[in-house]
Structure formats: structure tokens, C-alpha cells
Amino acid sequence: MRQRHLFTRTQKQAPRDEVTKNAELLIRAGFIYKEMAGVYAYLPLGLRVIEKIKQIIRDEMNALGGQEITMTSMQRKDLWQKTDRWDDDVVDIWFKSTLKNGTDVGLAWSHEEPITDMMKSFIHSYKDVPVFVYQFQTKLRNELRAKSGILRGREFIMKDMYSYTANEQEHESFYNKTKEAYMNVFNRVGLGGNTFITFASGGAFTEFSHEFQTITDAGEDTIYINREKNIAINEEVLSDTMLADLGVSRDELEKVKTAEVGNIFNFGTAKCQQLGLTITDERGEMIPVHLGSYGIGITRLMGTIVELFHDADGIMWPESVAPFQLHLISLLQDSTDHAEELYKRLVDAGVDVLYDDRDIRPGEKFKDADLIGIPHRVVVSEKTVETEKLEYSHRTATREKSMISFEQLTQRIQ
RNA sequence: CGGGGUGUAGUAUACCGGUAGUACGCUUGGUUUGGGACCAAGUAGACUGAGUUCGAUUCUCAGCACCCCGACCA
Hints:
Layout: H1 21-28, E1 32-36, E2 39-42, H2 44-63, E3 67-68, E4 74-76, H3 77-82, E5 95-98, E6 104-107, H4 112-119, E7 131-140, E8 155-165, H5 168-188, E9 195-201, E10 208-215, E11 221-226, E12 231-234, H6 240-246, E13 254-268, H7 270-275, E14 278-280, E15 286-288, E16 290-297, H8 298-308, E17 310-311, E18 314-315, E19 326-330, H9 337-348, E20 353-356, H10 362-372, E21 376-380, H11 382-385, E22 390-394, E23 397-404, H12 406-413
Parallel strand pairs: 3-7, 19-20, 19-21
Antiparallel strand pairs: 1-2, 4-6, 5-6, 7-8, 8-16, 9-10, 10-13, 11-12, 11-13, 13-16, 14-15, 17-18, 21-22, 22-23
Helix pairs in contact: 1-8, 2-5
The protein binds one RNA strand of 74 nucleotides through helix 10.
């Protein structure tokens, strides 16, 4: 991609209304555009990051046996009434609307009810399960207060997966595999060291759920962790009984602020029973189905990554989710043939490169590159034209330049 | 939803009861070119409505929007 043609531009000034770093940097660098409070558009750079994150998650979910689908944003009132979750007093974040013919519809804030109802058309026998399906979907939640940039929006992208299994053991097995897959995701996007599997409230169906909590001051949650024992507990459920069960004392725990980047939840058989999803077992008898629900907030994850990986000059994307692998910066004035040729070679070699071919001063190019935060950087200038080597640096240490060959560069990027 | 705050150009800001100044951006010309250059000439603005007043961007009220703290977060 030629930066000359990238339609977004960077801004020097931080927007007055944004306090959090994720919002400030993503807006300044041109990744996102704020439409209204808690509602952001994703521009070419931002969309690239979203797609990188989605692909990593897709890999991991497919490895679990998940199959991707897309449900609808408009949902039926009667399904949510069956589980007593239509009432605004029960679920206070509903967006609702009415069709021309008078039918009430809800706008998707979650999908357990419609997806479980849909399963009645496809799951009839113990032979039809397990089923693991997932989707990437825009969720709409009428939050009383949106905050912290893209960490808590009214419209956001979520990966949600649902498991339908025949019994508790099968559910447990998949639940535990998902727990591992989720940690794989967070490791791969660079959050591994700061993300803890946390005991949290299980709601009406089960004693506990598990949240994936990433340490950041921009987060809204508070959890207690013990790094050596790898124990984490949401303060909502912290109790003496739980501490005794886990074999830790209060003074061994560290209190940290976190953002909830993922959540896995066991609904047991209750939800399927309410909605009438049952299967026949080997003996032909009707048995209930176990439902598990597994979410990752894609856009929140993106914001959390920015909160963790930035410095005074801008974002420092982990390589796995960076919008481009390489930032090629040309400082050549009159003859740009050398840079053009290198750009073509890189593209031909399959490198995802943002090529700064703009006719502006070097300082501006460097500042923009730091702000956008692409990890690998190569600078072409009068100094480097004569040599066969490339001037290379990394976003985390832009002053540490080294001269490397084209082959060395492509190796580093892979 | 309770509390607090803020609305001036594309962005960030200043002053003022007598119709608005600066910086960045953008346009044109010239000089520059390894960390957001310089000169010149342009471009573009008071959230909406009502009230007070000879006169309101400024004061008052209402609405709307945005931000922060709390509450909420299945």
C-alpha cells in the first residue's frame, strides 16, 4: 500500500474529548473515527488490525472444531421472553425496535437464545452433537455510559462461540480445551504475560465462570492475582471459602486493575430446556443439551493492546496484529526509482508493506511512522542508495539502525 | 440512572456585552529536506432555541451533544 493513497491522515493534536490512550492514539493515527459516544468506525488501518485479530481467533476456534457462521442482528421477542430476558428490568441494555406491521424486534446484544432456537432445526439426536459454532458479530448494547474509547462501546465487534454437548463430561472437556485455546489467542496477540484466567460470577446457572482479564489501568475490573500460583479472582466473588479452596491467603494476593478481554460461561442445561432443545439418547429417551458460551471482544482486545503497547510517540503493535508488517520510508527527492524498485521486490516477496512515498519532509514521515506503530522499518535515502544493504530498525528502538540484506529482512519479518 | 464538567474553523485553543485572535491543517507561489521547516498570500468558526439587552459568541434558562466520577456490566 502506498501511503500517498492511504485515505486517512494522522493528526498532531489529541482530540479533546478522549482521555484514554487507546482512543487518543487510534484516532490520531487514523485507525478509527468516532461517530458518537461509544460508537466508532474502523478505517483501513484499523480494519486491518481487526482482521488480523479475527484470523488468529479463527485459527484457534477452527482447531477446536468450531465452525463459523453469521447470525442476524434482528432478533425475535418471543425467544427472549421464553427465557425471561426480554424485559428491560432484567436486561437493561436492550435496543429494541418495531416493524411496520407492529412486531417487536430486539437488536442483538448476545445470541444464546436465537442460536439455541435455531439448533432445534438441526440437533435431534445424540448423534448430532457435539456442535461448536462461532461468529464475529457486531453487538449492540445500550450502555448507560460508554467509556474508555473502544474498551466499552455501545456497538462493538465480538467473537461468540456456542457449544452444544450431550452431557456434563463432554461439556467440561470442551470448556477446558476452549480455556487453553483462549490463552493461545491472548499469547498470540501479545497479551499473554498480562492476561489471567480469572474466577468470576457464574450467574444463575453455575457457580463460577472464567474471565480472561488483562492487566491495564484503563480497565474497569479489579481482580486479585498470585503470579507464582497463577491464580486470579475477580473481586466480585472473592471470599474466604474460595481462598481456602484455592490454597492462598489474602496477603499473598496482588490487587490489579484489568480489562476483561474474554469470558467463558456454562449455561448447563437450563437454557436449552427453556427453549425446548432436547435430543434423544441411545435408548430413545429425551435428554437435555448442555450449552456453553464463549466470548472475546475483538475491538476491546484491540484497544487493550494499544493500552499496553505504546510510548510517548505512538503505538507499538505486536507483529501478529500490526496493520502492516513493514513500513518502507523513502527520503529520496528527485529520483525515487530505488525505493520504487525495493517496494516492488517486497510486494513480490509477499511482504505486507506500507510504503511512504509521500513528498514531505523526513521528520514528518518518522513521526507518522512512530504514531502508526508498524514494527519493522526500512529507510531508503541518498545514504543508502549506493549500498546493497537496507537500513533497518524496529519500532521499539528506532534509533538502533542496522544494515541488513534483503534476505535478512524477509527472514526477520516471517 | 445520580453527581461534576465542557461545547468557538477540519483539529487544538484565546479574548470579549459592541459580530472573533493564534497554532496546526488545507490551497497557491518560493526557499528547504535524516526526527512534525521557513517566508508570502489565501481558506475556514461561536451546538440549537428562548429570554435579558439598543446590541449576546459572551449573561440567564431550556434542549442537544461530548467527557469524567459513581452505579451498572448476564
